[in-house]
Amino acid sequence: MTTTAPELVVSSLDYDRLDAMIAALPLEQRAAGEALAAELARARVVEPAELPADRVSMRSTVCFESTHEHHPSRLTLVYPHQVGTHADQISVLAPVGTALLGLKVGDSIDWTLPGGEVTRVRILGIDYQPEREGKLHL
């Protein structure tokens, strides 16, 4: 769960796809799905064309740092079935993946990892965001 909760903004397309994905998750992924559902429940939902360019959306390539890593990471936020199709991807169901969704550049969020350790994730930049590039239906 989060201990610091910055505003989240997600596109209606991402919201609908993620909501459907959560509903269809197998039992072993339900806990991760519940964490994602809790974040979606507090998000402000906007049309894809209205998503600010500095917000992390699905398929965004994000540069971020976390307190459990010793260097910045650059990963693309993807759906679970897409993990492994390219290098440098993170599933939205991974704890840090869930934490990234909807944040803006400069935001930080405290996030509890599966072992109970709390990490702080901070968005340093967004190299690619589909909505910013006019790809509103990816």
TrEMBL record:
- The Regulator of nucleoside diphosphate kinase N-terminal domain covers which part of the protein? 6-46
Annotated signal sequence is none
Q: Which Pfam families match?
A: GreA_GreB, Rnk_N
**Name of the protein in question:** GreA/GreB family elongation factor
Q: Which GO terms describe its molecular function?
A: DNA binding; RNA polymerase binding; translation elongation factor activity
The segment(s) forming the Transcription elongation factor GreA/GreB C-terminal domain are 52-128
Name its GO BP terms in alphabetical order.
DNA-templated transcription elongation; regulation of DNA-templated transcription elongation
Q: Which UniProt keywords apply?
A: Elongation factor, Protein biosynthesis
This protein's species is: Aquimonas voraii
UniProt superkingdom: Bacteria
